[in-house]
Amino acid sequence: MDAIQTKLNDLRPILLMARRLGASVTLLHCYVAPPSFDFAAGERAVKELSVHRGRVRSRLYELAGQARRIFPKCSCRFVSGSPLTHILRQSQRLWADLIAVPLPLDLVRWCWLPEELLDELVRRAACPVLCVPASQTLAEEPFRSISETIEADLMTTDVEPESHGLATLKP
Q1: At what angle do helices 114-124 and 83-93 cross, to 10 degrees?
Q2: Are 26 and 76 in contact (CB under 8 A)?
Q3: Which residue from 4, 21, 159, 167 puts its CA 20 to 30 A from 43's CA?
């Protein structure tokens, strides 16, 4: 997930689905330094990068705290490096049954286009990948009823035979 761009409303469908299934949720943010730091040099650049990284981590913890108030079986992890590598690695370590990706993934666009990242996740993940479009609702809007049906359509994509497919959640 993108700790800066993702809002609690974007996670609601994932949290509701997890609650209905009796599952747990781990929010994962893969930190990649913004390109503005690529040519920075010196002690000040290192300090600014450290401050930026700390702000992103704090935002992830804040978002996880908000999610935990709604769904207590929610944890978070903050890692540095390639989103694809870490999403796959963490999903294997956690024995994930599903990788749910809230869209859009604005912050990773300088290292991966979201479509490329999702395509690789679908091809290489050991479990299904669910793409959840960003919420168009206002922050004040209440949760949907847990008993309300949430549809997921399996998208037809050109995927490897051993991949599990790509689904998009339509709230």
Answers
A1: 30
A2: yes
A3: 4
Higher pLDDT, 91 or 117: 91
Closest CA to 2 of 132, 144, 150: 132
Per-residue pLDDT tens digits for 101-121: 877 655 444 555 667 778 888
**22 phi and psi angles, rounded to 5 deg:** 70, 30
Instruction: For residue 122, tell me if it sits in a domain.
Output: yes
- Structural contact between residues 27 and 57, judged by C-beta atoms closer than 8 angstroms: no
Q: In sequence order, which ranges of 71-109 are alpha helices (DSSP H)? A: 83-93
The model's pTM:
0.70
- Is residue 154 domain-resident? yes
Residue 7 and residue 135 in contact, taking contact as beta carbons nearer than 8 Å: yes
CA angle 124, 27, 50 (to 5 degrees): 100
Contacts 24+ apart (CB under 8 A), 136-140: 137/9, 138/9, 139/7, 139/8, 139/9
Give domain status of residue 1, yes or no.
no
